[in-house]
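pinned: reference chain
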Amino acid sequence: MPHIIEITDLALPELDVFARLTEAQLRSRREPEKGIFIAESPKVIGHALDAGYEPLSLLMERRQISGAARDLLARCSEIPVYTGDSELLAELTGFSLTRGVLCAMRRPRLPSVEALCGGASRVAVLEGIVDATNVGAIFRSAAALGMDGVLVTPTCCDPLNRRAVRVSMGTVFQIPWTRIGTTSSDWPQPGIQRLRDLGFQTAAMALSGTALSIEDPRLASIDRLAVVLGTEGDGLAPATIAHCDHTVCIPMCHGVDSLNVAAASAVAFWQLRNR
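pinned: its C-alpha cells
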C-alpha cells in the first residue's frame, strides 16, 4: 500500500526538495551520488521508472491518488506520498501543479563517453546551450529522429533540470546521454579529439560561406557522425568550428538567416540520420 502523508505543515523538511532547494542544490555537485532531480506529470515519471530511475518521494494533489497517478502509486508503493488540495500545494511550490504530480528521483550515474558511443553511429553534441526549454526540445528531437545518444558540454544546461525534463516529455530518460568533460578546458579540442579517437567525424552546425549544405550526400554517407550544436544567439564558438571536420548549414529562404537551435536540431537530426 502507498505510504500517503497528508500535509499539515508546509515547513516539513521532507518537502524541501519540491519547493525550497535550488537546481544546483538538488544536483549536489559536491556529493553527486546524493543528487536528486524532479520529474513532473504521471507520463514523464512513468518513462523515468521504465528506464530504471529510483523514485524517492511523491508530491501530488489529493484527487490524483485515485486518478491519473493511481498506476504510479502501484509502482512506487515503498516511498512517501505527500498530498493536499491544489491550493495548498500551490502555496508550497509557488505555482499550480498543472499535471498534479511531482516525483523526487535519484540522479543516475552517467556512462562514460566511450561507453555511450561504443555502438553509436549518430550522436548529438550540445555546446553551452543554456535554455532548459531548448535542451528539452532537442532531446525530444534526438530521441524521435534517429540519434543514438546526446553529449552535453560542461557549460550546457543540465538535461535533468525540471523544465528540460518536462519539455522533453520524458525522452531524456529514453535516449542515452552523458557529459563530455567536466570543466571548460575539456571542450572543444580535447572533446572533439576524443570523438575522433572513437571513429567519429564531427559536423559543426554553423553559418559560413564555405559550409556544406545539410543536403550534401557525403554527409549522410559518413559511418559515424557527431552533430555539434551551439548556444542560443552566438552559436558555436569559432574554436569549435575550426576543430570540427565539417561545417554544415541548413539552406534558408526569404532572407531568414537562421533557426532557433531546437528547430535546427530537428532538421539536422532528420537529414543526417543513419539510413
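why pinned: The chain has twelve helices and twelve strands. The first strand starts at residue 3 and ends at 6.
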